[in-house]
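User: Can you predict the 3D structure for this chain?
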Amino acid sequence: MNEQYQEFSKHVTKDDRDALREMPYPSTGITYDCLRHVVVYQLWNDDSFTSHFTFLHETLSEMGMEFFYPGGSIQRRICVLLRELFGLEDSEESRYLKNTNVRIGLDAFADEVIKRCQRAK
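Assistant: Here is the predicted structure, written as structure tokens:
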């Protein structure tokens, strides 16, 4: 496992594992376009999120998710999972949302999407 995965995973506590939020997350005014813009164009280029992307990439890879370009990048996969997490659309990726580590990793993205999409209004 690489350093960035280990860096993020060492911050995951038992409390995080025990306190997963109910799905779908409240998504007042969040659209897929805004969600996608935040993940692909803002967070992807934000160095403070590098370990978050790596953590989810490693976790999802271990679960059998395949990544490819075009159409199957980690950014795209996170957008699809967040879209379902926010209740915007069902996906074929639901099984991944049952994994505690995936949910913990997505929480950081979800919180940032909420904050940035609401700020953009």
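The mean pLDDT is 83. The longest helix spans residues 100-120.
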